[in-house]
Amino acid sequence: MTKILAINGSYRAEGMTDQAVEIIVNALRSLGATVEVILLREFPLAFCSNCRECTQQPGSSPGNCVQDDNMAELIQKIEQADGVVLASPTNFASTTALFKRFMERLVVYGYWPWGKHSPKLRSKGKPRKKAVLISSSAAPAFMGLLFFTTMKQLKISAKTIGAKQVGKIFIGLAAKDPQPVLSDHTKQKIWNAATKLVQTAKG
C-alpha cells in the first residue's frame, strides 16, 4: 500500500493551507493510500545549531543529529514514505518559521566532511519519492509564484529528501475573507494532484 507523509508548516488552524492539506489527505485515502499528517505547530523540534556533526557521518542514510528531540522519528517517517506532501503558507515572502526550522534540520541529508568545499546529498541515486507542494498567500497567486520564495523552498526540501515534484498547489488571495474557504476549482486541482501522487508513487 502506498504510504504518504504530509508535513504541514501552517500556524493557523483551518486556514487555507490547513484546508488544502485536509482535502488532499482525504483524496489520498480515498485512492487507497495510507497517510500520516505531521503538524509542525504541534511537533516539537529544536533549532539546528549548525554544529555539522550529522554531516560528518559517512553513508547513504541520513546522519544522526545531536539534538534530543523528535527529528529522528520524523526522518524515519520520511524514509519510509513513498511520497510526501510539503505544505507551508507564505509569510513575509517565504515559508513560515515553523517550516524553515524543519527545513534547516534536513541538513542530516548532506554529507559534508571538514575540508570539502561542498556537500553531497545522501538521497542522490536512491529510488525517488514523489512530492506535492502546497502553499497559500495573501497576494494573488501569480505574484506569489513570481516574486515569493515559498515554492522554491518547498521544492528544495523535496529534492533534499530525494523526492521529485509531481504537483503543486498555490492558493492566492488567502486573506481576502476572515474565514477563507477554498474554491471548487482549487479543490479539484488538489484532487488531481492527489491522484497523480498516488499513481506515480506506486510506479
Describe the structure.
There is one protein chain. This protein is of the alpha/beta class and 203 residues long. 35% of the residues lie in helices and 19% in strands. It has helices spanning 16-30, 71-80, 97-105, 141-147, 150-160, 184-202, and strands at 3-8, 34-39, 83-87, 110-111, 120-121, 129-136, 163-171. The strands form two sheets. The chain has a five-stranded parallel sheet with strand order 2-1-3-6-7, with helices on both faces. A two-stranded antiparallel ribbon has the order 4-5. Helix 1 (16-30) crosses helix 6. It is globular and about 50 Å long. The mean pLDDT is 94.
Question: How are the secondary structure elements laid out?
Answer:
Blueprint: E1 3-8, H1 16-30, E2 34-39, H2 71-80, E3 83-87, H3 97-105, E4 110-111, E5 120-121, E6 129-136, H4 141-147, H5 150-160, E7 163-171, H6 184-202
Helix pairs in contact: 1-6
pLDDT < 50 runs, ≥5 residues: none
How do the strands of the widest beta sheet line up side by side? Answer: 2-1-3-6-7
Query: What's the end-to-end separation, in Å?
Result: 12 Å
- What percent strand? 15-25%
Largest sheet descriptor:
5 strands, parallel
Rg is: 17 Å
**Kindly state the mean pLDDT as a whole number?**
94
Count of alpha and pi helical runs:
6
Order of helices and strands: EHEHEHEEEHHEH
Total count of strands:
7
Structural class: alpha/beta
Describe the global form: globular
Percent in helix: 25-40%
Q: In a nutshell, what does this entry contain?
A:
35% of the residues lie in helices and 19% in strands. The protein is an alpha/beta fold and 203 residues long. The strands form 2 sheets. Strands 2-1-3-6-7 form a 5-stranded parallel sheet, with helices on both faces. It has a two-stranded antiparallel ribbon with strand order 4-5.
